[in-house]
Specification:
This protein is mainly alpha-helical. The protein is built from five helices and two strands, in the order αααββαα. It has a two-stranded antiparallel ribbon with strand order 1-2.
């Protein structure tokens, strides 16, 4: 399969970071980068996400440092630790929201689940019953 061709705006961003943001000690804020490219920080955030997710470019972003191209494994680990922290924060927020919704509206019953989830549960139970039926037949 042929490699994806990177759009020019992503190339420009990656080249900028490679020149001016090598290492966490040279990190640039998304606001600084956005001002350079005459766009918004949110657009820069989306572009960095694409660089990493779609093109596997090593671009790190931390709340304290900003955006940078890591120059060592320890430099990269700072970026990974930042992502893990945000991932945990989002998970905790989701769990708290689910609990708040359960407290406000009660826990959903099997009949409240979307049909796809209900069917999946039904198939899972059917598989379990089939499994135990097979074991019971072997025991006889």
């Amino acid at each position: 399969m042929a490699a994806k061709t990177m759009p020019d705006d992503l190339k420009a961003l990656y080249n900028f970071l490679s020149l001016y943001a090598r290492g966490s000690h040279n990190a640039k804020s998304q606001k600084q980068i956005a001002e350079h490219f005459k766009t918004y920080p949110r657009a820069i955030r989306a572009m960095i996400s694409t660089l990493v997710s779609d093109y596997r470019k090593p671009v790190c972003t931390t709340a304290g440092d900003g955006c940078y191209i890591p120059t060592s494994r320890s430099d990269a680990e700072k970026g990974i630790a930042s992502l893990k922290s945000r991932e945990n924060e989002i998970r905790q927020r989701r769990l708290a929201l689910e609990e708040a919704i359960d407290n406000a509206f009660g826990r959903p019953s099997l009949f409240d689940l979307p049909i796809a989830e209900t069917l999946a549960l039904g198939l899972m139970f059917a598989g379990i019953l089939t499994f135990f039926s097979a074991i019971a037949l072997e025991v006889r």
